[in-house]
Amino acid sequence: MPATPLTGIFPPLVTPLRDRDSLDVEGFERLTEHVLAGGVHGLFLLGTTGEGPSLSWRLKAEVVERGCRQAAGRVPVMVGVTDPSFADALRLAERAAAAGADAVVIAPPYYLPLGQPELAGYVERFAAASPLPVLLYHIPSLTGVGFSPDTVRRLLDSPKVIGLKDSGRDMTYQHTVRRITVARPDFSVLVGPEELLGEAILLGADGGMCGGANMVPRLYVDLYDAAKAGRLDRVRELHGRVIAVSDAIYSVGAGGSAYFRGLKCALACLGLCDDLPAEPYERFRPAEREEIRRRLRQVGLLAN
Amino acid sequence: MPATPLTGIFPPLVTPLRDRDSLDVEGFERLTEHVLAGGVHGLFLLGTTGEGPSLSWRLKAEVVERGCRQAAGRVPVMVGVTDPSFADALRLAERAAAAGADAVVIAPPYYLPLGQPELAGYVERFAAASPLPVLLYHIPSLTGVGFSPDTVRRLLDSPKVIGLKDSGRDMTYQHTVRRITVARPDFSVLVGPEELLGEAILLGADGGMCGGANMVPRLYVDLYDAAKAGRLDRVRELHGRVIAVSDAIYSVGAGGSAYFRGLKCALACLGLCDDLPAEPYERFRPAEREEIRRRLRQVGLLAN
Amino acid sequence: MPATPLTGIFPPLVTPLRDRDSLDVEGFERLTEHVLAGGVHGLFLLGTTGEGPSLSWRLKAEVVERGCRQAAGRVPVMVGVTDPSFADALRLAERAAAAGADAVVIAPPYYLPLGQPELAGYVERFAAASPLPVLLYHIPSLTGVGFSPDTVRRLLDSPKVIGLKDSGRDMTYQHTVRRITVARPDFSVLVGPEELLGEAILLGADGGMCGGANMVPRLYVDLYDAAKAGRLDRVRELHGRVIAVSDAIYSVGAGGSAYFRGLKCALACLGLCDDLPAEPYERFRPAEREEIRRRLRQVGLLAN
Amino acid sequence: MPATPLTGIFPPLVTPLRDRDSLDVEGFERLTEHVLAGGVHGLFLLGTTGEGPSLSWRLKAEVVERGCRQAAGRVPVMVGVTDPSFADALRLAERAAAAGADAVVIAPPYYLPLGQPELAGYVERFAAASPLPVLLYHIPSLTGVGFSPDTVRRLLDSPKVIGLKDSGRDMTYQHTVRRITVARPDFSVLVGPEELLGEAILLGADGGMCGGANMVPRLYVDLYDAAKAGRLDRVRELHGRVIAVSDAIYSVGAGGSAYFRGLKCALACLGLCDDLPAEPYERFRPAEREEIRRRLRQVGLLAN
């Protein structure tokens, strides 16, 4: 159990695919080295950006093992656990422990409707059984229910619960949660959406899990450092670049999958890995891909 | 592939548990025989009522195998496939085929946001790969997205798509879907909520998947028969009993799990199986259990 | 106060407009006579279909006065009251009483979030102050909150609360409500969506408020009569026509306004009134209008 | 039309009531002087915090007239316009202009479902007809629909649209909107939730409409000043106090009305005005009121 909170930038690593159920191994290794070279402070495997819930059990296990092997102890590795079955969720945590991961990030079971007491009890039982420390995955837009402040307060009594990933987009929630968790100095609050990284760090969060760090890790590391140092002008400049990247890359194509497909397509344009998304999504078509290339040039991520 | 649609009452079989990850085998067999003795026309394993999404892969496989073995060809068996991973969903369909099941009922992947064209493409690819015919599981309250009428129309071109389970509670949707699917006489529209069974059959649906049939299968079979025969007075009487059972048994305890826990507790009170729900839920406490007993007596399902 | 419930077909009268804030008086009178000639049992002014919430206070008062004068006691008149301000809602009820209306249909205040006890208290105070009997307007998709079964039960103690308009599209709710209100024989349950009229009447509802009755009142009156008489074959036939009209006319144009604009455009094509919708909507364009004409011919409402 | 954007703290003034439909005139004047003495930069009448949508037309007109008279030109006055009827909304804007207000803040009509093009057209027509400049009221949780970035971009072509109040709680939206509106230096982005004031100003927003400024205006003015000056340590300290006030005062009592009722009760405890909320809400009971007093002491707003 860490005595200090997890801090810094933990990119939610994209899962490059060769086909529906096999990993683009070279792309995965290249991407991992790319983010590590950019100075990130850890890895987050099988998160939402990594399309974790869409991958088969077999592929999830492979990602965990290859990710830990590739990290090789250079940085901590966190593993997203989003299986609606308790037993299978625990099985993945055990696999992650065996592979050398440092923590799991557990989402509420997201099919059946769930009350807060049920959610709290679930996480208490999971944390008690888990071989690894546990962070809470707060992402109510996808799981239907998030961790209410009272539930967070109750879970502070579980010493293996060591943090919360806040992907809720509502900073009022995060401020309340930080106020509650101040009593646990080892508890880490990490912000999900990269567009909120600047303000989260300025006001006291411990780090961020920024999808854009798959493309350009240094930008988010620099923003984290500037915010930690209270260099406000630099924060504003880098924050502006983060918003520009986000507005450009995540809005091609319609609907809620624009983020995933845009990010994966950009990684392909940058030569990092294949752009095949997991089912049920399809690759961008040539016109959309060309638009992504155009925008990457526009925001300075691709040379002419 | 059946030339005629699936018709009649297919109880979404409750999954009795001995503990978190093991089946109450005797309860499962007893329950199966109980519903078959009540005249049901088939079984639906691993649906929402069966807590399918909450069970481990191992336990799902066991339920499928034991369920098919117990049915022993007496009635058709359908298997709910709700895994958000395509590969694991297909793996379960293959297991179901090997065990002798007759069809799978496939839900939209329910974690990431999904557009209708993506959903249609997903099901087309799944149906093409599946060894078993496929019914669509329309339950937007839990999966976030349902099958729009246009998507249903498109999927009629997939001959392996043979039906739809409508658990949407909006009969205007069902009427539109039946109007669309009239061109495919082998296509089966089955209603989910038992409170809608009477009207659905009166107006042309093919059958129902009624959770209450776990407790008292004959009631739903009788209602189905009366509605098929157009015996309106009898329909009204039996429909009234169905609503009375529903109002009594599914409203003890707070929140969205009242249905599951109430049903499972009632089955325990009726001596059919254990009342342990799957994670993340907990058993009813003694006071709630006593209230269920009281209500079972009130609606005439339990003798004094 | 009526000793018997309101029964039959009460078309939610469309409000024909000449421009943004003036009534198409001739169209309004023509439309009123058209539905009365079709045998409807009453009128419902200023409902959702009548775009009540979008009209100015002045125009609402004019509609109420002209509507009551035109009805001239031939049928009962109900008035929709959807003002989020208690005082203005009451003022409209008083105006309706002065004009000779028979009842108001009151929606929950729909801007601020509202709990069930607050909603119940609000309606109790409103009913106590209202000069006219009150029906509950259950339309949670637009008001955010509906009347829970427990709230309906509590409001049965207010003798001036004499009915509920169920526009919730969830017939399981309606069945539960009818079971609760059986203790008040003067209490009227009226179904909103015309697609549910057949089954609602077959299973015991008292009537319907069918938007399509603006176009072709006789169809809905006939369906009501057939369902009341238990003539099941006739119900199925007329129900099929209702669904055909609904699928054809309410699905031209995108988004949630397709219903309003389609209905108003159809009324214009039928020569009944202007097709100008209230703000914030715009009239259908020529191509959409031509499509409505084509569909009206297809479902037999317009001669070639 | 102002050449520079509206900047600073504009408290959404609470509307003190004597009874259901009459203003607590003394409380209103006292409250107005209280916030002005605290250094606020303007007033926002009839917003959500002011329970604008719940007030009668008559009372709204009175609030506008008394508010403008009391401000007496010392600070700009904005008026919330949330009437779902275009004509009545415009009528209120005209009344506001006649009373000497400086701008209106217009919400999307919030009863019927609305698409973005319809919303944009609505606001264009409203702005063209309005005698006062218009700010957009972005509060999708209450109006169902908000102003998408593309709609904001389109509305920049309307010179009378001079700002946006962002009450959406999603700062990623605000960052995108600020990036779009940078081309209009006179365009003002004001943040609604006071818990987000610090970060909003630090990263470039123009001001805030903080409900808590009714109680303790100086706190929010100080935070605004500190953030403008880039004094990060001071920002963190004051932000911490803002969160403490928010967590303490807005969470007594259940449900969505805890904010309104808590705030109004606190104002009563501070001796500023009556605590009667507008319908459909009821005053806090003695125990809840005592709890508010206790918490006011805890956060240092009430002496022992």
Descriptive notes:
- The first copy, chain A, is α/β, with parallel strands linked by helices.
- Helices cover 46% and strands 12% of the residues of chain A.
- Chain A contains 12 helices and 10 strands.
- In chain A, the strands form 2 sheets. Chain A has an 8-stranded parallel β-sheet with strand order 1-10-9-8-7-6-5-4.
- In chain A, strand 6, helix 4 and strand 7 (134-138) form a beta-alpha-beta unit.
- In chain A, helix 4 packs parallel to helix 6 and helix 9 (217-228) packs antiparallel against helix 10 (232-249).
- The first copy, chain A, is globular and about 55 Å long.
- Chains A and B meet through helix 2, helix 3 and helix 4 of A and helix 2, helix 3 and helix 4 of B.
Task: Name the features.
homotetramer, 304 residues, eight-stranded parallel beta sheet, 12 helices, 10 strands, 46% helix, globular
Give the rounded overall mean pLDDT of chain A. 96
Largest interchain contact: A-B, 43 and 43 residues
Question: DSSP strand (E) fraction of chain A?
Answer: 5-15%
Number of helices of chain A: 12
| Net shape of chain A | globular
Structural class of the helices, strands and pairings of chain A?
A: alpha/beta
Strand order within the widest beta sheet of chain A: 1-10-9-8-7-6-5-4
The topology string of helices and strands of chain A comes to: EEEHEHEHEHEHHEHEHEHHHH
- How would you characterize the largest beta sheet of chain A? 8 strands, parallel
Helix content of chain A: 40-55%
Beta strand count of chain A: 10
Q: Assembly type of the shown chains?
A: homotetramer
Report Rg of chain A. 18 Å
Distance between the termini of chain A: 48 Å
Provide the low-confidence segments of chain A as ranges: none
